[in-house]
Design brief:
alpha/beta; Rossmann fold; 2 domains; 7-stranded mixed sheet; 4-stranded antiparallel sheet; binds FE2/S2 (inorganic) cluster
């Protein structure tokens, strides 16, 4: 099997795809919280994706087909080869040896990042509570993985088609208010979801991490495209993160920068479709 062969590709929902990729160098060294950069072919951009799980020489990624490259990735099948998979990149999650109680919250495609994190927290002797949410039942991913790992799992859907109706912030708030000792919380999902959900833990003084997803190019701290402001300081998400203290992140700065590239993305999609 060649390097970067797609061992298994399948759709998890209409727009979310899962891929197991043969990438021994990445798989052997990857830790929870780290990501890889995928170069599907010679023409597309490089796309950063968090590593969702490892198994022997293979890594799992999951992504939503929204941009040029992720739409191209979604057309690839089992047995196809990717041009390049660089990684593992970024800092591993700040998991401490237990016994502590940690909550891992995933929203939308961000749930893809939760199994590897939940497993690492569990392996370190922690009590792991998972909260995963999606807009509706069809868009919910990796429930089985999380159910197998977590000591407790709460599932939410915005429309109430499955699990608890509402956002993932609901069960998180209940847990914070229950008086149970909670040591750390991770929140991974769309920017707005992470911003809003991390406000739940702030009044309780619970250390909370988010995994930021700014635009990345080189992934090695050289190009500056992934800069974010955390605690009033400039950081590079690719080397200093992608996980940061949620209560220190300048969310407005992050979201403004993400919007900066919308025109280029549209141009790229038009180019591909011509
Ligand atoms: Fe270039 Fe982080 S992606 S500095």
């Amino acid at each position: 099997m060649g390097n970067y062969t797609i061992v298994q590709a399948r759709a998890l929902s209409e727009a979310v795809f899962e891929m197991w990729i043969h990438a021994p160098q990445v798989a052997r060294h990857a830790k929870a919280g780290q990501f890889c950069i995928i170069h599907a072919d010679g023409a597309g951009e490089r796309v950063p994706l968090t590593i969702s799980a490892t198994n022997g020489d293979n890594i799992r990624i999951a992504f939503m087909a929204v941009g040029t490259t992720t739409k191209l990735l979604a057309t690839l099948k089992t047995g196809d080869e990717l041009r390049d998979v660089a990684g593992p990149l970024g800092m591993p999650s700040d998991i401490t040896e237990g016994p502590e109680t940690v909550i891992i919250v995933g929203g939308g495609v961000g749930v893809a990042c939760t199994p590897i994190l939940a497993q690492a927290a569990k392996d370190a002797g922690n009590y792991v509570i998972g909260i995963i949410g999606a807009r509706n039942r069809d868009l919910l991913i990796f429930e089985d993985d999380m159910r197998a790992i977590c000591d407790e799992l709460y599932v939410t859907t915005d429309d109430g088609s499955y699990g608890i109706k509402g956002f993932a912030s609901g069960p998180l708030k209940d847990l914070c208010e229950s008086g149970r000792k909670i040591d750390k919380v991770w929140i991974i999902g769309p920017g707005m979801m992470m911003k809003v959900t991390s406000e739940v833990t702030r009044p309780f003084g619970i250390k909370t991490y988010v995994s930021l997803n700014p635009v990345m190019v080189d992934g090695t701290g050289m190009c500056g495209s992934c800069r974010v402001t955390v605690g009033g300081e400039m950081k590079f998400a690719c080397v200093d993160g992608p996980e940061f203290d949620a209560h220190e992140v300048d969310w407005n700065d992050l979201m403004t920068r993400q919007r900066m590239y919308l025109a280029e993305e549209k141009q790229s999609m038009d180019f591909r479709e011509e």
